Amino acid sequence: MIFKRLLGATVVTMAAAFLSACGNPTPITSGTPSPSPTITPFVSSEYTAATAGAQPSGITKGSDGGLWFTEPAVNKIGHVATDGSVTDFALPGANAAPLGITLGPDGYEWFTESGDAKIGHVNIVGGIVSEFTLPDATAQPTGITTGPDGALWITDPALNRLWRITTSGACSYYPLATAGAKPTTIAAGPDGQIWFVESGIDKLGALPAQDAVTSVPPACPQGPTPTEYGGFSAGAGLGVVASGPDNAMWVTETKLDKIARVLTNGTVAEEVTLPGLTAPFGLALGADQNFYIGDGTTDAIAQFSPTTAKVLTLASPKTKPAGIYWLTLGPDNEIYFTEKTANQVGQYRYF
């Protein structure tokens, strides 16, 4: 293990563990879906994490055509290659607990380290992991997304704020208006704003990315306070927020078995019941402009049309209990999801 210093970040070179998917590796497929599904959606493949008990959590597509996912229980970042092989990369800290992960504007996979107040990125070439330490050791970076400003935006439920970090490590922070708001999941909206769930008070927050303040390390200045929007049914239990094909934001309501549509002015336009789901959480928009919603309690994935506001199909993984958690659109336009309980990544085909 070789440690270096680069732009104020810790850089680590390390060997990756290797393991194939269950049985013979199943290559990641490729293709473009038609406007409506040409097959009955189903879970086609499952890929076992390279380390036992990893509890795969966040997942995102990679610039290399593969999938990248976090393994908080073993402090590693996992990778599913296009040939179906699975590797993972150990992080330097014993308490890193990586959670959120996103494809950054620089082609690296950026992730949060909720256990040691760091933001990291990994590049498959050479197995390089770089880390940026946040200026407050009590920070708990959780969700992460790439903003329209080319920066990474991060939620921090422990300090009740957002962080913004550039690819060179310059940071700023944005305190929330309500104490105990507990920001968690986060996504870029169609309106140039950064939208996020405030799980402590069942509200959404939003901040124009253009309102971000700039800085020069090691300074990390405070920026403006985001706007908060309520109006959800009592006890909604907001889960994952995502941008829809209709210039609106959508968010799962884990405690009411619903999904809500929120206009960019903050108005809750509708809350739709999701038959067959009991705790909808994960949410990803497919290339067919339908949403795919994961439920870790029933271990089902629902195909949901935002146009008709109806569940079209339900499908389940082969392995149960799976513990479906996070969903993402893969580089091949299929839906991929993490299985925390089964220690796997699943592939859901809908075309």
Describe the structure.
By secondary structure, this protein is mostly beta strands. The chain has a single domain, classed as Methylamine Dehydrogenase, Chain H. The chain contains no helices and 31 strands. The strands form seven sheets. A six-stranded antiparallel sheet has the order 1-2-12-11-10-9, with no helix packed on it. It starts with a strand and ends with a strand. The N terminus is likely disordered.
Helix/strand layout:
Blueprint: E1 2-6, E2 9-13, E3 17-20, E4 42-48, E5 59-61, E6 67-71, E7 76-80, E8 85-90, E9 98-103, E10 109-113, E11 118-123, E12 128-133, E13 144-146, E14 152-156, E15 161-165, E16 171-175, E17 183-188, E18 193-198, E19 203-208, E20 227-229, E21 238-243, E22 249-253, E23 258-262, E24 268-273, E25 280-285, E26 291-295, E27 300-305, E28 310-315, E29 324-329, E30 335-339, E31 344-349
Antiparallel strand pairs: 1-2, 2-12, 3-8, 4-31, 5-6, 6-7, 7-8, 9-10, 10-11, 11-12, 13-14, 14-15, 15-16, 17-18, 18-19, 19-20, 21-22, 22-23, 23-24, 25-26, 26-27, 27-28, 29-30, 30-31
The CATH first-level class comes to: Mainly Beta
* CATH A-level architecture: 7 Propeller
CA gyration radius, whole angstroms: 19 Å
Shape: globular
Low-confidence stretches: 1-24
Mean pLDDT: 91
Task: Kindly name the structural category.
Answer: mainly beta
Provide the CATH topology: Methylamine Dehydrogenase, Chain H
What is the structure about, briefly put?
With about 350 residues, the chain is mostly beta strands. It contains no helices and 31 strands. It has one domain: 7 Propeller (Methylamine Dehydrogenase, Chain H).
